[in-house]
């Protein structure tokens, strides 16, 4: 069954794309606590059922307006249709019919019982974002048009963001504790489950967005006989993939929160671990990278990696993001070491991973003796699809089920995407090379966790 976009849908998308997205910080995401109530989850789903369509609409619009014929590439259009279809599913999801009593309760702030309720922390400007590159919107855009979404209007048709209700700006917040003094009706729980199911379907649909967009760029390069991608396309990809990280974070978090009743680890709020242990994750990433390296080069023993890290260092983070960044940088180092010193060496210089803990940042340095990178190539390592692998492995859209990290190297996405992950929560990734000797990668992770997502 193939999906078709209608004119009417595209008009609605255009309308939504006029609204700015609202940034959320890691700390705000954690405020749900381990087990949010049905009412609180419902409030969050109301925020998301407006916020996600806004973010999706921006992407549809941007894909639609890409310059120089890039918007006409089949893979780009495919991705645009996924975004449009997901948009449609979200805005047409029927809302529950609620009694006015329940609606009132949902709009009322929770009675403060000394715990989480009123203490919604403010998101601050993201320090990793250059002015003008993304917008990082710490405050919800308050121009007097809140939304009236607490009152589910049970209609199944397309409805614009419900911003008619004046003064109800509190609804445009991600986390609002609901008034849990009494039981919530079963329709609310049923809706929450349904909403989470829709999100799961959408998340799966977008699994191979990164490879499909990359495919679209390749189609375009081939058609236009381009060797490199220019600054505009690079900036578009940065925005696009950064936005994808944010959308998937919100979706993944909501699915996990809804599912939380099954969970028992008190250190987790959704997919965020409030005590992410750096040493454990680093050890795992080292093991995985060495394994992939042995497999790729047919080595009995991959180059060694030494880890210097206090075993107690832990902080609030998404373990999946940190693993991704470590794995990508370690693979790069191991590859450089093997290729510099030759596959048939018995012994390789050791790559060092050093973890430092400060008040503001946790910094991880990955130092290798893989020969470094010529200074003139440094800007290139941050461009998508720049790789020194001769033969890019084939872009099979199904291989990246675990988010684009299977192969040793060859897509040129490792560094730029890792830097986006770091910046997403206010960190950064820097690379310094000594040509003829080796490379140091600094991964700065912001532990204050209050910075807003970079938005566009
Ligand atoms: N530690 C390193 N030492 C030497 N070169 C590196 C290192 N890390 C990255 N590079 C260079 O940067 C390029 C891009 O890296 P990356 O974005 O991870 O893509 P890929 O690994 O798929 O090529 C690599 O192909 C390599 O030439
Ligand atoms: Mg790489």
From TrEMBL:
Biased composition range(s): Polar residues: 113-128
Record localization: Mitochondrion matrix
Biased composition (Gly residues): 145-160
Organism of derivation: Aaosphaeria arxii CBS 175.79
GO aspect biological process, one term: regulation of glucose metabolic process
Family according to the record: Belongs to the PDK/BCKDK protein kinase family.
Region annotated Disordered, chain positions: 109-165
GO MF annotations, alphabetized: ATP binding; pyruvate dehydrogenase (acetyl-transferring) kinase activity
UniProt name for this protein: Protein-serine/threonine kinase
Catalytic function, reaction form: L-seryl-[pyruvate dehydrogenase E1 alpha subunit] + ATP = O-phospho-L-seryl-[pyruvate dehydrogenase E1 alpha subunit] + ADP + H(+)
Coiled coil: none
EC numbers for this chain: 2.7.11.-
Superkingdom of origin organism: Eukaryota
Family annotation (SMART domains): HATPase_c
Histidine kinase domain sequence ranges: 322-449
Keywords: ATP-binding, Kinase, Mitochondrion, Nucleotide-binding, Pyruvate, Transferase
A GO cellular component annotation in the UniProt record: mitochondrial matrix
Gene3D superfamilies for this protein: Alpha-ketoacid/pyruvate dehydrogenase kinase, N-terminal domain, Histidine kinase-like ATPase, C-terminal domain
Pfam families: BCDHK_Adom3, HATPase_c
């Amino acid at each position: 069954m193939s999906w078709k976009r209608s004119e009417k849908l595209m008009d609605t998308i255009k309308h939504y794309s006029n609204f700015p997205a609202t940034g959320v910080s890691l700390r705000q995401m954690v405020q749900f606590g381990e087990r949010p109530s049905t009412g609180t989850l419902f409030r969050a789903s109301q925020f998301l059922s407006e916020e996600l369509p806004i973010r999706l609409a921006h992407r549809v619009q941007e894909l639609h307006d890409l310059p120089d014929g890039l918007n006409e590439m089949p893979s780009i259009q495919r991705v645009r249709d996924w975004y449009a279809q997901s948009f449609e599913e979200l805005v047409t999801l029927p809302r529950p019919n609620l009694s006015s009593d329940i609606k009132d309760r949902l709009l009322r702030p929770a009675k403060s019982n000394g715990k989480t309720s009123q203490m919604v922390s403010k998101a601050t400007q993201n320090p990793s974002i250059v002015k003008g590159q993304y917008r990082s919107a710490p405050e919800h855009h308050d121009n007097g048009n809140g939304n009236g979404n607490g009152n589910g209007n049970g209609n199944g048709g397309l409805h614009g963001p419900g911003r008619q209700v004046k003064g109800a700006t509190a609804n445009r917040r991600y986390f609002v504790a609901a008034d849990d003094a009494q039981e919530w009706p079963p329709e609310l729980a049923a809706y929450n489950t349904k909403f989470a199911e829709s999100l799961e379907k959408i998340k799966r649909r977008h699994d191979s967005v990164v490879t499909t967009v990359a495919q679209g760029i390749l189609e375009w390069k081939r058609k236009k006989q381009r060797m490199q991608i220019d600054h505009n396309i690079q900036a578009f990809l940065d925005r696009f993939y950064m936005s994808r990280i944010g959308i998937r974070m919100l979706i993944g978090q909501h699915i996990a929160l809804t599912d939380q009743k099954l969970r028992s680890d008190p250190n987790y709020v959704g997919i965020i671990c409030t005590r992410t242990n750096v040493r454990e994750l680093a050890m795992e990433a080292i093991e995985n990278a060495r394994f992939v390296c042995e497999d790729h080069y047919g080595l009995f023993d991959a180059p060694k990696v030494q880890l210097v890290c206090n075993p107690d260092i832990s902080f609030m983070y998404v373990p999946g993001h940190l693993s991704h960044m470590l794995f990508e940088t370690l693979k790069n180092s191991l590859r450089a070491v093997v290729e510099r010193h030759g596959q048939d060496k018995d012994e390789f210089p050791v790559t060092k991973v050093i973890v430092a803990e400060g008040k503001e940042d946790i910094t991880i340095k990955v130092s290798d003796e893989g020969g470094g990178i010529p200074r003139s190539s440094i800007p290139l390592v941050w461009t998508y699809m720049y790789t020194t692998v001769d033969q890019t492995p084939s872009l099979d859209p199904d291989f990246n089920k675990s988010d684009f990290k299977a192969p040793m190297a060859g897509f040129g996405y490792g560094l730029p995407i890792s830097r986006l992950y770091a910046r997403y929560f206010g960190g950064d990734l820097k690379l310094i090379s000594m040509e003829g000797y080796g490379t140091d990668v600094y991964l700065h992770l912001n532990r204050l966790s209050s910075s807003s997502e970079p938005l566009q």
